[in-house]
Write a structure and sequence with these properties.
mainly alpha; two-stranded parallel ribbon; extended
C-alpha cells in the first residue's frame, strides 16, 4: 500500500476522463484482477459516472458467468487460450512489432505523409523513420 494511488488523485483522474473524454469507453474487461483491486474499486466507484460503471466488467477465468460476458463481446475462437478462449496463437513480440510498423507506414502513406521504410535499428528494435506532417497535409486531412 506504500505505492497506492491516493483517493484524491484517483478522483481527479476519473473526473478528467469523464468530463473531457465522455463516452469514449465502449466496454472494459478487467481479467483476473487482484482481489485488492476489486476492494479499491468498490470504494472509488461512487465517484464514477453510472454509465461508466455499467461498462466495467470483472472477468475471472474460473467464473463461468463472468466468462459468458466476455464471450458475448469476443468470440472464444479468436480469444487466446490464456484468456479462456480456444485460439492457440503464439505471441511473438518482434513479429508483432514489425507488422505494426508496416501498418504505421501504410497509414502514413494513405494520409500522404513522407514516411520512409523501416530502416533504422534503435536498441535492437526496428524503428520507422517517419517525418512530422506538413501543415498543408494536416489541413487537408481535417
Amino acid at each position: 500500500m506504500a505505492h497506492a494511488t491516493p483517493i484524491k488523485t484517483a478522483r481527479e483522474s476519473t473526473s478528467i476522463l469523464q468530463n473531457y473524454y465522455p463516452e469514449r469507453l465502449g466496454i472494459a474487461f478487467l481479467f483476473n484482477p487482484p482481489k485488492v483491486f476489486e476492494a479499491f474499486y468498490k470504494a472509488v466507484k461512487y465517484f464514477l459516472d453510472p454509465r461508466s460503471i455499467e461498462k466495467l466488467n470483472f472477468v475471472y477465468l474460473k467464473d463461468e458467468e463472468s466468462m459468458k460476458v466476455l464471450y458475448r463481446c469476443i468470440d472464444p475462437e479468436v480469444l487466446p487460450v490464456d484468456f479462456g478462449g480456444r485460439n492457440n496463437v503464439l505471441y511473438n513480440h518482434e513479429e508483432y512489432t514489425k507488422l505494426m510498423l508496416e501498418d504505421d507506414i501504410k497509414t502514413s502513406s494513405f494520409w500522404a505523409d513522407d514516411a520512409k521504410p523501416v530502416n533504422r535499428v534503435a536498441n535492437g528494435t526496428l524503428v520507422a523513420d517517419v517525418r512530422p506532417q506538413s501543415p498543408l497535409i494536416a489541413a487537408k486531412a481535417s
